[in-house]
Backbone:
């Protein structure tokens, strides 16, 4: 059986998946070692998303400052 492909493009998406993972570990019988590994990977995805979002926001601010003639 092929795993469902997740759309993890925002921190909210990752949060949703972490909640589902927690629920599966807590009540669904997913092995906690496997759950811990998945949670770690999801946290890496979340941090990467946050870093990219911050880079984009900073680039926008820098462009606006340069366009207004500020050094």
Residues:
């Amino acid at each position: 059986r092929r795993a469902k492909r997740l759309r993890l493009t925002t921190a909210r998406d990752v949060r949703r998946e972490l909640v589902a993972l927690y629920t599966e570990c807590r009540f669904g019988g997913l092995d906690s070692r496997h759950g811990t590994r998945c949670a770690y990977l999801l946290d890496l995805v979340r941090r990467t998303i946050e870093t990219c979002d911050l880079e984009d926001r900073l680039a926008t601010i820098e462009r606006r400052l340069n366009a207004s003639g500020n050094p």
DSSP finds two helices and no strands in the chain. Residues 32-67 form the longest helix (36 residues).
